[in-house]
Amino acid sequence: MITKAPRGTKDLLPDESYKWQYIERVIRRITKLFCYMEIRTPTFEHTELFVRGVGDTTDIVQKEMYTFFDKGERSITLKPEGTAGTVRSYIEHGLYNITQPVKMYYITPVFRYENPQAGRLREHHQFGVEAFGGPEASLDAEIITLAITLFNELGLRGLEVDINSIGCANCRPRYLEGLREYFKDHLDNLCNNCVSRYERNPLRILDCKNERCTAIRSDAPIILDYLCEDCKVHFQELQQYLSAASIEFKVNPMIVRGLDYYSKTVFEILSPGIGAQNTVCGGGRYDGLVSECGGPKTPGAGFGLGIERLLLTLENQGIEIPRSSTKEVLFVTIGEKARSKAFELLNNLRVNGISADMDHLGRSVKAQFKYADRVGFSWVCTLGEDELESGTVSVRSMDDGREESIPQNMLIDYITGEKGAK
RNA sequence: GUGGGUAUAGCUCAGUUGGUUAGAGCGCCAGAUUGUGGCUCUGGAAGUCGUGGGUUCAAAUCCCGUUACCCACCCCA
After folding, report:
1. β-bridge mates for residue A265, sequence order
2. N or C: which end of chain A has fewer CB within 10 A?
């Protein structure tokens, strides 16, 4: 039990962590290009924030939260998504008082109590962006463009962008009414889940994958026919902006998203071929969320992107992630005196920006060389009695086996030169 | 929460109709004339057979429970 990570969690060992570092590096570069700044919020929040922010009709709140009472008897929840905490922070620190828009991104673990499967864990990691204070469709288009730019940068191909508008507080009620009117005669044929959705949130019936429900809804009214003028124009503008950025998309009136806070734009980016959990990125506009959480009426838009699913997609497309080989010099020592000299020299190298290490196990020369080879050092510096006497070090290139005798005080210059030549 | 599959060494997996000290490949460690890696050869370490119970003279093997992993449903990243 104590030697097993909890269900749905994973260790990230050194032979994989380089992939994450790479992704994070690209994310930070792209967000900078789009002028987004990093925000880091707590791993847990008051449960009430998610109930209000995410919505108490959502599956997340109803059955997937890691909720517990702390020693002060506060109800605490591990963040199940990234938006609510960011919104809370935006309000708490009065960020609506500074120059708008406020554009932020985060990379954070999120927690959901679900049954694990391919591309779904109980702890996973999301890269997300949230942009507050901008009502224009250009902002919606910008976040979609940001996600696509990231995917392109990573070399991904064949992703599908689905967009839709789910209207606003003005026009959505009319549509919900229309949906109820339509489904009223089909209640007997809908799945149990959809029957309860009929009252709670008929929008979600459009989301159901049940065959019968799919068939029934094929003639259901389309939200796009119900949009008010404002939402209609906004959706058209979004499409114009996306086209201007040469982003291919598909209008899919069936995507509605599982979180309650969305208004107007919703979108998903799908990756075929990574199994059933194929939504890599999802988001949209949430003009009512900040006020719902107790702040001033503030428009906003954002998305969440699953890092694990992104890695699955990269793997699926056979994309090699560059492994930064940072191991440069290994000192091979013969005898105690050589060890202490090596310790001195290798620290000089490190201070001068050259990665270096030495044997810490007291192994034979042969074993030390073998180690250098296995671990992937570029050069081996041998120190034995001969070298100590002459004040030199034997530097061997592990690529071609070439070996030279270098004065110890010239070592840094020599390695630096060799690095440049590589 | 529901359904199906799986569980043997660090990894990938063999293991017969139940029958002695549970095997292989890869990896790891050491050695092949005492200061030199990759190839080869030799040797070594490493497994409570997921876990608890049951049947049996005898269980990795058969039965039941349980946990975990994989896949799928619901939903989502």
Report:
1. A165
2. N
The domain in which residue A30 lies consists of 14-171+227-316
Cβ contact A207:A266 at 8 Å: no
Both tokens of residue A335? Answer: 């005898």
In a domain, A153, yes or no: yes
A341 touches strand B (CB under 7 A): no
φ and ψ at residue A417, rounded to 5 degrees: -65, -45
pLDDT at position A263: 93
Whether A254 and A399 map to the same domain: the answer is: no
| CATH classification at residue A140 | 3.30.930.10
Per-residue pLDDT tens over the stretch A238-259: 999 999 999 999 999 988 887 8
Q: Residue A370 is part of a domain; what is its CATH number? A: 3.40.50.800
Judge whether residue A1 has pLDDT over 90. no
ipTM: 0.87
Q: Is residue A181 part of a domain?
A: no
**In terms of domains, do A347 and A379 share one?**
yes
In this structure, the answer to whether residues A346 and A386 fall within a common structural domain is yes
Strand B nucleotides, any atom under 7 Å to a protein CB: 1-3, 27-32, 35-38, 67-77
Could you give the strand order of the β-sheet that contains A250-251, starting from the edge strand earlier in sequence? Answer: A37-38, A102-111, A123-132, A300-306, A279-285, A263-270, A160-165, A250-251
Number of domains in chain A: 2
Q: pLDDT tens digit string along A9-39?
A: 999 988 889 999 999 999 999 999 999 999 9
> With 90 as the cut, is the pLDDT of residue A326 above it?
no
SS3 A221: coil
- Is residue A212 a part of any domain in this protein? no
Q: Å from A374 (CA) to B26 (C1')?
A: 15
| Per-residue model confidence as pLDDT tens digits over A136-156 | 999 999 999 999 999 999 999
DSSP for A299-311 reads -EEEEEEEHHHHH
Indicate whether A37 and A76 sit together in one domain.
yes
Q: A8-26 burial string, b = 16+ CB within 10 Å, else e?
A: beeeeeeeeeebbebbeeb
> Which of A282, A316, A350 finishes a domain?
A316
At A259 the pLDDT is 81
Q: DSSP readout, A260-276? A: TT-EEEEEEEE-TTS-S
Does residue A254 sit in the same domain as residue A365? no
B23 C1' – A323 CA distance, angstroms? 36
